[in-house]
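Changelog-adjacent note: as of this version, every example in the card shows the full chain rather than a window. The one below runs 381 residues end to end.
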Amino acid sequence: MPPRPLTVVWDERFTEYDFGPTHPFTERSRALGVRLLEELLPAAAHPTVEWLRDVAPADRATLGTFHVPEYLDYVEEASLSDTATVLDAGDTPAFPGCYVAAGRIATGALRGLAAAEAGRRAFHPAGGLHHAHPDRASGFCIFNDVALAVAAAVRSGRRVAYVDVDAHHGDGVMYGFYGSGKVLDIDLHQDGRTLFPGTGAIEETGTGDGAGLKVNLPLPPLAGDDALVPLVRRVALPLLEEFRPELLIVQHGVDGHVGDPLARLQYTPAGYREVDRLLLEFADRTAGGRILVTGGGGYRPESVSRVLASAGAALAGLPEATEAHPPSAAWRSAFTEAFDAPAPDDWASHALRVRSPWNPDAEASLVGALERGLGRKFPAR
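Full-length structure tokens:
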């Protein structure tokens, strides 16, 4: 596969989005993913890869294209306060400078969107903060960078498809555009009856002009690649082909990976690679190559760093780069220093997988329920 023009948005200041050493979310694992991607795609050898390393925080007007003024006031005040404040029910604490840190990540998605609109593939590994709502924080997410990118693309007249493979339902994005006929939202996630935020049921299919364009695929714990990959082929791709978006935005959460401490979907690196391949082929075939991929959830640093680096290599048109370049000694040393844990020395997953409950009957049941909710048929397995 020939190299492809790719823009990677990474400012080291993204790591200032930091809830503290005991919080499960950290941009440090995304930083290690970027460092690993730099090893896979050194600038001298890959001139088609552009790195955007100076990203300004979003201004209030930009943030206001998705978030309401009262919420922006609240975050800004909390950001300047020395008093401990939580921005939601307790999972998303404020910290000094959080308004600027979250605003910088928001801009990152918009810089990536601009690159995609210009015909380059775009990657924003620090982003994917899909739980934030217009009026509140949620699930470690202060500002919703992907929703801001979707909103900007819609304002420019684009038909946008948003595909979310995070283990947690992307509620902030889906409900933010629930009535929009310009946005197809496909969300594969662990069943909300077993995982935060508790939403994303099959019956939630949109309203008004958006009716039938919000598609939820809730999976049981331990479902694994046997559920993920066939459902992308059988359900997501036909929906995408029918909608024919002019832009594809992918939230590439890694918390579905086997061994993640907060979710239990036990996907593997091979499963993620196949989904990447399918979505990139679709974007090239139907959306004029316009694709923006963001990061997302993921709480096992060895999984997050390697899966995001692999996704970046795929975006550059060089998925085989991982096989030829195991993580270097320098990278492993940096990983150990960052997380005080042994670093992986290959690209394989060594976490224990257990038997999946997923089978053809489970797939038939889910697809059948989806067909009834959407009033349409999907291809047979």
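Structural remarks: The beta strands are 6-9, 49-52, 121-124, 160-164, 183-190, 214-219, 247-251, 291-294.
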